Amino acid sequence: MNNTRFSTAIHILTLLADSGENWVNSDWIAGSINTNAAMVRKELSALQDAGFVIGRKGKEGGSRLNKPSSQISLADIYVAVKNTEVLGKKNLNTNPQCPVGKQINKELDQLYSDTDQLVINSLKGLTLENFAKKFC
Fold first, then answer.
1. Which terminus of the chain, N or C, has fewer Cβ atoms within 10 Å?
2. Which segments of the chain have a pLDDT < 50?
3. How far is CA 113 from CA 1, 5, 65, 69, 83, in A?
4. The pTM is what?
């Protein structure tokens, strides 16, 4: 549960939303996040794969939004970068002889799925545009 991908993605996209049509380089973004540019480029790649960002290489290169911030929901961002469960990892080595151990992961799968859907539903109505306005 110690995953910063969502917060990093929101940070990057908020910076790009505030930059309009300007190309923003990964070094500048990294300075705002207080991390290294390689990590930013990794996240930018995932955001580009999701269609939120376009990139341009070279001296005048950088990244910018690929579509208006009003068309990017926080739920879409969450789904694009999610790589861990909100509730954490499950124990995959439970005792199959135990009445709880042999079934718990099946029950946890449903609980995790339901919880994930609650998070997604909560974020659906929120746009990057509205989030970014908090920093103007």
1. C
2. 1
3. 15, 19, 30, 28, 13
4. 0.87
Helices (H), the chain: 5-18, 26-33, 37-49, 74-81, 104-124, 128-132
pLDDT per residue as tens digits for the range 18-48: 999 999 999 999 999 999 999 999 999 999 9
| Token pair recorded at residue 35 | 């991390």
For residue 1, what pLDDT is reported? 41
- Dihedral, CA atoms, 30, 33, 38, 41, nearest 10 degrees? -80
Give the integer Cα–Cα distance in Å for 23 and 74.
22
Query: Which H helix or E strand runs over 98?
Result: none
Handedness of CA 87, 47, 29, 31 (dihedral sign): positive
Alpha-carbon separation of residue 83 from 1, 72, 99, 119 (angstroms):
10, 19, 30, 14
Give me 66's structure tokens. 């690929």
Instruction: Tell me which residue has tokens 């910076």.
Output: 15
Please tell me the distance from the alpha carbon of residue 16 to that of residue 10, in angstroms, as a whole number. Answer: 10
96's tokens: 């199959």
Residue 127's pLDDT is what? 97
The helix/strand/coil state of 56 is: strand
